Amino acid sequence: MDTQGDARPWLGPALMCLAGLCFAFLDTATKYLAEFYPLTQVIWARYTGQTLVLALVFAPRMGWRVLHAHSYPLQLLRGLCLFGASMLVINGFARLPLTETSAILFLAPLIVTLLSGLLLKEKARRMDWVAVCCGFAGVLIIARPGGGLLTWAILFPIGTAVCNALYQILTRSTRASEHPVTSNLYTGMVGAVVLLPAMPYVWQPMSWIDLLLVGGAGCIAATGHMVITKALSYSPAATLGPYSYFQLVFVAFLGWQVFGTVPDAVSWIGILVIAAGGLMISVRRVLQYGSSKFHSIKRLR
Question: Of 232, 181, 216, 192, nearest to 57 (Cα)?
Answer without folding.
Answer: 181
